[in-house]
Structure formats: C-alpha cells, structure tokens
Amino acid sequence: MNKKSSFISEFKAIVFAVILSVVLIFPVQSVYARTPAEIRNQEELNISQDMSGQDLSGNDFVKLDLKGINFSESNLTGAVFNNSKLNGADFHGAQLNDALAYATDFEGADLRDVDFNGALLMESSFTDALIDGADFTDAVISRIQQKQLCSIASGTNSKTNEDTSYSLGC
Predict the structure, then answer these.
(1) Which member of 31, 57, 164, 167 lies 3.0 to 4.6 Å from 137 by CB, making a disulfide possible if both were Cys?
(2) Cβ-based burial of 120 (10 A; exposed 0-12, middle 13-18, buried ≥19)
(3) What DSSP state is assigned to residue 132?
C-alpha cells in the first residue's frame, strides 16, 4: 500500500510540474480573453468632433458620450448606437438605414434629411431633435415615439423622396 500511495503522490507531483511548466512557458494568449461586444471596435474608431462624410458603416458606438459630434453626410448603415448620448449631434444627411439605436439620447440632435430606413430605434429619446426630411420608412419605434415625432414631422427626404410624415405613419 505504501508503495502504491508513494507512486500516486509522485505521479501527481509530475503532472502538476508539467502543467505549471506549460502555463509558464506558453502563457495563455489574448485570444482566449474576448473583448466584450460593447467595446469591440471602439478603440480603433479615433472619434473626433468632426466625423462628417465618412464611411462608418457597421461600427459600434455603444455606451459612448458623443454629444455634439458631427456625423453629417456619413454612411452609418448598420451602425450600433445603443445607450449612447448623442445630444446635439449633427447627423444632417447621414445614412442610418438598418442602424440600431436602443435607448439612445438624440435630444437636440440634427436629424434633418437622415435615412432611418429599417432602423431599430426603440426606447430612444428625440426631444427637441430636428427631423425635417428624415425618412423613417420601416423603422421600428414605439407608439409614444411615433406620436411625438408626428407632431413635429415635416419635409421630404432629398435622397429617398419620402415624406417624413408618411414614413412615420402619421
């Protein structure tokens, strides 16, 4: 019995030494530590006050303070703005079709002539936003948002030729 337990102890020690050596020699690669989805590509965005006229399609702008940033005439197709602060941001003429902006604050933002076609805008705030000529065709918004936006809707989108009121279903 004593020989058997001695052999098991030695075996355990050898296995422990091998595992420890492997861990020390070959450290765990950063591949195993995945970056959370909400900050996936934000490091390389190089956000500045003037982001106008850029192709920013598919980028994630999640939980960011983007107050006053100029995104005018930018391609933001499929971009994600969940829980971001876009107060006073300029999106005039931007393409935000198929964008996702859940619980995003567009308070006072310039959304004139924006193409929101197919965008998901649930629980977002549009207080004092300028929406003249914005196209909300097939955008998903709550009934409360729809009523608020319909009360200020005017104009026709210059690219899609869609009337703002009609695109909101007013």
Answers:
(1) 167
(2) middle
(3) T
Is the separation of the CB atoms in 117 and 138 below 8 Å? yes
Residue 87 backbone phi and psi in degrees, to 5:
-55, 125
pLDDT in tens, 113-153: 999 999 999 999 999 999 999 999 999 999 999 999 999 99
Q: Which residues of 37-61 are buried (b: 16+ CB within 10 A; e: fewer)?
A: eeeeebeeeeeeeebbeeebbebbb
Instruction: Name the DSSP letter for residue 164.
Output: H
Report DSSP state, residue 8: H
**Are 118 and 98 within 8 A, CB to CB?**
yes
Give the rounded distance of the alpha carbon of 12 from its chain centre: 49
The amino acid at 76 = L
Within its chain, how far is the Cα of 155 from the centroid? Answer: 28
Would you state the structure tokens that stand for residue 134, as one six-digit string? 């914005």
